């Protein structure tokens, strides 16, 4: 009888232990799931878009419960949508302080790279170098034919970016010296501009380095070539940071992805491979007022 009582007690104790373990395992699984799942929506700069798209693709391979959607739309759109709370991250080529209608103090800046931008022309224009003054005169409409700057006898076709484009704001700050560009056709993405310049005789525009392909001709300015090295020391003046803004501090899921964007895997791999420049390579720094100082 005593043995039977002992056996019964052991069975009850074992059952309780198993139930306890089951509850503990279930709780741990739920906690793990909540930490590794979530959705991130990224909208904005088309100059930054290829880097974030590829990084998101790689990141989701190792974090299958994280869903990341990346779209363009321009820096102005990215900033306005992240400010309104419509998206998780707003990508921008410019500081939030530089965009009208944006309350920069409500946003948190996460710089993930630097991008150089270059004036580009149709390959048949016959021009590879211009002075800064000539480039400005082309965009204000004072120079209207490529022969005026040593090129082909062909009318110049301006292709600009729309208001709200960070690429346009960066170009104008470095080149236009406060003058207004001549009214012209506008295209809202780097990818579209690339195709238009390649296909349009006499065309000129400007692109992020990552979009400059062999189908178009990049221009040097005052004999300085648009290279990564010349950006890092500010010999090449047309460049900007690539910002990923959040409204306030990011949640855990977003913070983890932003940390990945700044990791060696991205900075020493994708950033270089896709035509961007790691912030760690910069020998100078720029503030929201475009003031450049040495690091």
TrEMBL record:
GO terms for biological process: phosphate ion transport. Part of the ABC transporter complex PstSACB involved in phosphate import. Involved in the system for phosphate transport across the cytoplasmic membrane. Its main location: membrane. It is a lipid-anchor. One of its GO terms (cellular component) is plasma membrane. The lineage of its organism: Bacteria, Bacillati, Bacillota, Bacilli, Lactobacillales. GO terms for molecular function: phosphate ion binding. Coiled coil: none annotated. It comes from Liquorilactobacillus uvarum DSM 19971. The keyword Membrane applies. Residues 1-18 form the signal peptide. The complex is composed of two ATP-binding proteins (PstB), two transmembrane proteins (PstC and PstA) and a solute-binding protein (PstS). The keyword Transcription does not apply. This is Phosphate-binding protein. It is found in: Cell membrane.
């Amino acid at each position: 009888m005593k043995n039977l009582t002992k056996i019964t007690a052991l069975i009850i104790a074992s059952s309780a232990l198993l139930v306890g373990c089951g509850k503990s395992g279930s709780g741990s699984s739920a906690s793990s799931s909540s930490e590794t799942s979530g959705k991130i929506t990224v909208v904005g700069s088309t100059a930054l878009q290829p880097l974030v798209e590829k990084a998101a693709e790689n990141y989701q391979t190792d974090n299958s419960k994280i869903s990341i959607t990346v779209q363009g739309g321009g820096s102005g759109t990215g900033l306005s949508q992240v400010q309104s709370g419509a998206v998780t991250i707003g990508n921008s080529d410019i500081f939030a302080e530089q965009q009208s209608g944006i309350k920069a103090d409500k946003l948190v800046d996460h710089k993930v790279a630097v991008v150089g931008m270059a004036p580009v022309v149709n390959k048949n224009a016959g021009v590879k170098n211009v002075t800064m003054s000539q480039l400005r005169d082309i965009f204000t409409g004072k120079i209207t034919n490529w022969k005026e700057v040593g090129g082909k006898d062909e009318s110049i076709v301006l292709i600009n970016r729309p208001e709200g484009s960070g690429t346009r704001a960066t170009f104008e700050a470095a080149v236009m010296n406060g003058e207004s560009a001549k009214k012209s056709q506008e295209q809202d993405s780097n990818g579209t501009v690339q195709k238009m310049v390649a296909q349009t005789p006499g065309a000129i525009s400007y692109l992020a380095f990552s979009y400059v392909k062999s189908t178009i001709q990049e221009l040097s300015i005052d004999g300085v070539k648009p290279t990564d090295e010349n950006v890092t020391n500010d010999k090449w003046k047309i460049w900007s940071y690539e910002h990923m803004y959040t409204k306030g501090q990011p949640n855990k899921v977003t913070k983890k992805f932003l940390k990945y964007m700044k990791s060696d895997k991205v900075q020493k791999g994708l950033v270089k491979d896709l035509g961007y420049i790691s912030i760690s390579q910069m020998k100078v720094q720029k503030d929201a007022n475009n003031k450049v100082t040495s690091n």
